[in-house]
Hints:
By secondary structure, the chain is of the alpha+beta class. Helices cover 41% and strands 24% of the residues. Bound molecules: adenosine-5'-diphosphate and magnesium ion.
Amino acid sequence: xxxxxxxxxxxxxxxxxxxxxxxxxxxxxxxxxxxxxxxxxxxxxxxxxxxxxxxxxxxxxxxxxxxxxxxxxxxxxxxxxxxxxxxxxxxxxxxxxxxxxxxxxxxxxxxxxxxxxxxxxxxxxxxxxxxxxxxxxxxxxxxxxxxxxxxxxxxxxxxxxxxxxxxxxxxxxxxxxxxxxxxxxxxxxxxxxxxxxxxxxxxxxxxxxxxxxxxxxxxxxxxxxxxxxxxxxxxxxxxxxxxxxxxxxxxxxxxxxxxxxxxxxxxxxxxxxxxxxxxxxxxxxxxxxxxxxxxxxxxxxxxxxxxxxxxxxxxxxxxxxxxxxxxxxxxxxxxxxxxxxxxxxxxxxxxxxxxxxxxxxxxxx
Length: 365
Ligand SMILES: Nc1ncnc2c1ncn2[C@@H]1O[C@H](COP(=O)(O)OP(=O)(O)O)[C@@H](O)[C@H]1O
Ligand SMILES: [Mg+2]
């Protein structure tokens, strides 16, 4: 898929903007803090119905009370119009070809892959960031995932409230929430394992392409629930129920749900050694690049469509070899938006458009 045209209204520092990007390469340059990332964010918002920084309502221009993005994507041999709006009270409205799907999120058919500087934290940061990678970046390709995760989160929040007051509130007992917690938790776990099994060969392959031979990338899902070797939701429900029962006393004491997918982690290994602990800066960059590459290929594998790639201030930060790897992979196939305050000369000979962002708008140069 690719973006044919985008129209932006009262979005971050943009008042009114209309852009018809190049089918292949779009290089967006300009001084800092003028709106390069904001522009990428508008494409992300149109494709995925959410922002990648802060709250969704933060995207509304400060002096306005709603922001909207209208995008024309070329997808499955036709043009699909998306209109995504958010009002200051936080309510979103998403129209696809004029029809309101009544939801606050997007159907998973729009592939947008974003690579931003703090993605290195996927490896180095807290487990929550790795769970976010699974939930937000991989989860979009599995139609049931978001829905199941939301159900789990609702039950979890409710159960935690009950635990905080000792397990009993207004005659409501923790027991009735346990069953749902284990059921939805097991479904989340089962889908996560399925997603990770699907992406693992792609990550491994991409890593070996990037780093050359000799290093083997491993990935392991580390669950707080003791799982017997099965990704089957029914079996996991049994595992989760057994483990949950055994830990309930501790949970009542600690006043929170201590096991479940909300506490799990994902560990990366290079030749058997934990990358987070032992990886060099270069190895960490390569692992993240491999993850993003795999995310793109997975979308293609699942839908037969290439996703749109947003590279926010990362390309110039990579060394020459990794830059080449990325540019070769996208060349001619994947519509790409690259932001950078430097490096314009690198792109002047290539097929594509160069835009300058100056704080008031964005124009082709
Ligand atoms: N909701 C908003 N309304 C108006 N301006 C905003 C809003 N959010 C951020 N900005 C402005 O956008 C600018 C940052 O834009 P950004 O795209 O992140 O810059 P860069 O070009 O460095 O990527 C800042 O000047 C900030 O003040
Ligand atoms: Mg930026």
